Structures are given as structure tokens and as C-alpha cells.
DNA sequence: ATCCAACTCATACTTTGATATGAGCATGCC
DNA sequence: GGCATGCTCATATCAAAGTATGAGTTGGAT
């Protein structure tokens, strides 16, 4: 497992205009941000994206695909990079649609370098936080997967607030066995106390409303 | 305490153009939505807003205040109605700024009636859900406030995962006393089990990260 | 002065939790 | 066959939780 901490952020630029690609690449490189450019949406989708932090700069108008559709497709494809949209001919409804779909920013061309940099910084920061959360959730899930089927059942019932006796009754096993599974679940989940286990369970099984 | 369930939603329209106010009022009334209109931001701020669900339609350009500043001021004033922005002369950066600040939608004038209705429905729905969450949180907080100072301390320590013995040590009291406060906290919070209490505590004291 | 709520503690008892030790049985893998 | 894993259960022990009863102190409000 690679160290996720001090990874370099990568800025991905998707624009069919070569001069814009070069300009942005120069801008980002000037502040030490690794940059990769793509001429089309398909170009980006065909290129394996390393699982590293960063963001995605998309021109709304692409040769092969609408920028908004592209944005929508990314989530489905499993790419969760924060998106900064830019366009030379967009209108307000288009920008609103992009923002509704979660874009970090929407810049009309031409834009000031500083505006783009601000947008990229905001995007990278948003991604960084999202990655931190996702990472925590993943770790908990991984641990949960190391539990046996019974241990999972017992853990979920216990964190519902049921006593060992009730858990045993629900599962049709003896209280002693339930205790053993409970102990194993605590150990495997790294939960020192029941309160910890409850919070871990809520990461896996989020409660809708209190 | 009033019943919060089936309250009527109220649409608040802030626009200095009388014909627009009338048109929108007519549109909303035609589908049975109670509507109130205001000519200026100050007019709205001076009028007591009942704590009922609904939304706020704001023209960006108001005589006394910029719509964006108005939007920003609302949160500070304690008004948390979802906002739909509209404008006759806005540009993309303005719409993006509004969306970043949490606007539900941003409609350029002229707009189709149906677009406005869609926006209002979305806004009301968002507000409804937010109100539900806020209501739940408030209820928990209210209950928590019925606890005595000691009971609060004990509850927080217990939900950190500490045993009664540790709680007693931390607070410099006997374990028996800690148990009494613990029991009182459980009863007053309506927590049947420790798992319940942990989740209630997390509503009051949200954990940053697992 | 009186009253009340909060806080404190003790004793006693019951229930539950946590853990260790030992063991039987089924499944699947090498 | 041998072996590991998971699931099951019993007995036993100790720690902790939960509850009930009774009682003393303090500080603030009436």
C-alpha cells in the first residue's frame, strides 16, 4: 500500500485547443503542479488515471462530448476528481447546471490566471478532504470485511443496542457464543470500547436520522 | 409547541419590479402556494418571517442591496430559507458565486414558468429536508439541556468510551455517584441503551473523523 | 427561614460483560 | 488424510454495569 500522505497533486486539463493546453500547463508548472493534458474526453477516459489527488479542468465544449455529460460520466466511471469547468461561449444555465452537479468552479474564457489558480487550489483542497474521508471509510470497511459472517451479524446487532442475550436469541445461538463473536469483532475492528464499535458500525451502516 | 408536519410552504419573492412580483405571485398562487412579496431587501428583513417551510426568490439587482450580499446576510440574520436567484442582467461569475453560496438555482430573466416552478419545488424540498434534520438536532439538544451540569459531563465521558470507574476518577467523584448521573442521563435523554446514548452524543458533539 | 434541586456517598443485590480454558463438529483446502 | 477456519457450547471467574434504598451537604430561590 502506497503512502497516501504527501502525494503530489496532478492537474488534468481537457481542452481541444492546443494553445490553451500549453498555457495552462505552463501556468500550473510555474507553481510546481504536475500537469497532464488531453485533447478530448475520450483521450482522458482512455488514459489510466493514477489514484492520486488533484483535479480536472474541463472545457465545456469538447470535440467528442459535451463537458456536462463528461462531468456526469466521470462519477459513473469511478473518477472522483473535483472538476473545474471553463468555457468560451457558455451561458448562465450551463454554469448553473455544472455547479449543481458538483463542479468546484466555472470560469468563462478568458479568465485571469489568478482566478484559475484559485479554482484549482479550491478543487485540490476539496479533493484532499474528500480523499481523507473516503480513506477513513475504506479502512473501516476493510476491517469489517475481515470479520466472519457471524461476527458481522453480532456486531451489527450489538451496535443496535441489543444485549448479548438478545443477540443470541435473534441468531439462535447461545449467549456464550455471541459473547465470543462479540469479542472477536471488537478485536478485529480495533474497538477498545463499545462506544468505538458503535461509531465504526455507523460508518459502515449510516443511520438516516437520529 | 406547534405541529411542524403539514405546514404550508410560503414563497417569499423579493423584487423591485411590481409586475414581476405580481406575475410570480399569480404563478405560485395558481398552484396553491402561499406567496408574499417584498420590494426591497430591507423590506424583507423588516418583516417577521414565520418559522415555516418555504423558499426565497431574490432578484440579484435590488434597490438597496446586492442580491449576493443579501444572500450572505440571511444566514447571519438566522434566516435559513433556500434561495432561488433570478436576474435580468447577470453574468456567469455572478451565478457561480450564488451557487457556491448555496443557492438552489439561478434563473436568468426571462424564464419559463415551468423552470421557476421546478426551482421552487426543488428549493422547498431541500428546505423540508433541512428542517427535518435541524428539528431532530434541536430535539436532542433540548433534551441535553435538561441534564444537570454533572450529568452532561458524565454523559460525554461515558460516550467517549470510559467506564464508570474512569468517569468517576476524571471528575473526582465516587463510582457510585457516576453511575447515578449516568442513569439519570440515560433516562433524560431517552436512551434505552448505551449505543443510543453514543449516537445522541454524536449529534451534540459531532466527531470530526472516525 | 424554608424549600428545592443538585451533588454527593454508602450498602446491597442482580444482571451483564469480558475472558479464559477446553472441546465437539462441519467445511474446505493442500 | 491432515489441517486450518469457522461455528458452536459448557464451565468458571472476575470486572463492570444497573438499580434500589437511604442519607448528608450545599447553594440558591421564595
Give an overview of the whole structure.
2 copies of one chain form a homodimer. In chain A, α6 crosses α8 (175-189) and α7 (164-171) packs across α8. Residues 1-5 of chain A have low confidence and may be disordered. In chain A, β3, α3 and β4 form a beta-alpha-beta unit. Chain A has helices spanning 18-30, 41-46, 67-77, 92-100, 113-145, 149-159, 164-171, 175-189, 194-204, and strands at residues 10-14, 34-38, 54-59, 83-87, 105-108. In chain A, strands 2-1-3-4-5 form a 5-stranded parallel beta sheet, sandwiched between helices. Chain A is built from 9 helices and 5 strands. Chain A has 210 residues and is of the alpha/beta class. Chain A is elongated and about 70 Å long. The first copy, chain A, has 2 domains: 10-139, 3-Layer(aba) Sandwich (Rossmann fold); 147-204, Arc Repressor Mutant, subunit A. In chain A, 33% of the residues are buried. Chains A, B: It holds the Pfam family GerE. Chains A, B: The modification 4-aspartylphosphate is found at residue 59. Chains A, B: Keywords: DNA-binding, Phosphoprotein, Transcription, Transcription regulation, Two-component regulatory system. Chains A, B: One of its GO terms (biological process) is regulation of DNA-templated transcription. Chains A, B: Residues 140-205 form the HTH luxR-type domain.
Amino acid at each position: 500500500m502506497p503512502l497516501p500522505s504527501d502525494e503530489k497533486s496532478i492537474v488534468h486539463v481537457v481542452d481541444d485547443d492546443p494553445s490553451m493546453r500549453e498555457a495552462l500547463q505552463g501556468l500550473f508548472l510555474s507553481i510546481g503542479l504536475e500537469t497532464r493534458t488531453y485533447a478530448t474526453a475520450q483521450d482522458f477516459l482512455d488514459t489510466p488515471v493514477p489514484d492520486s489527488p488533484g483535479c480536472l479542468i474541463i472545457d465545456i465544449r469538447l470535440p467528442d462530448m459535451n463537458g456536462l455529460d463528461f462531468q456526469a460520466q466521470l462519477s459513473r466511471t469511478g473518477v472522483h476528481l473535483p472538476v473545474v469547468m471553463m468555457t468560451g461561449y457558455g451561458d448562465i444555465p450551463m454554469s448553473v447546471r455544472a455547479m449543481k452537479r458538483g463542479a468546484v468552479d466555472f470560469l468563462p474564457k478568458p479568465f485571469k490566471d489568478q482566478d484559475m489558480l484559485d479554482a484549482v487550489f479550491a478543487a485540490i483542497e476539496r479533493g484532499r478532504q474528500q480523499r481523507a474521508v473516503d480513506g477513513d471509510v475504506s479502512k473501516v470497511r476493510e476491517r469489517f470485511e475481515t470479520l466472519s459472517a457471524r461476527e458481522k451479524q453480532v456486531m451489527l446487532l450489538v451496535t443496535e443496542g441489543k444485549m448479548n442475550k438478545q443477540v443470541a436469541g435473534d441468531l439462535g445461538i447461545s449467549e456464550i457464543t455471541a459473547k465470543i463473536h462479540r469479542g472477536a469483532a471488537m478485536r478485529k475492528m480495533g474497538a477498545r470500547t463499545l462506544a468505538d464499535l458503535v461509531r465504526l458500525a455507523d460508518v459502515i451502516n449510516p443511520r438516516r436520522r437520529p
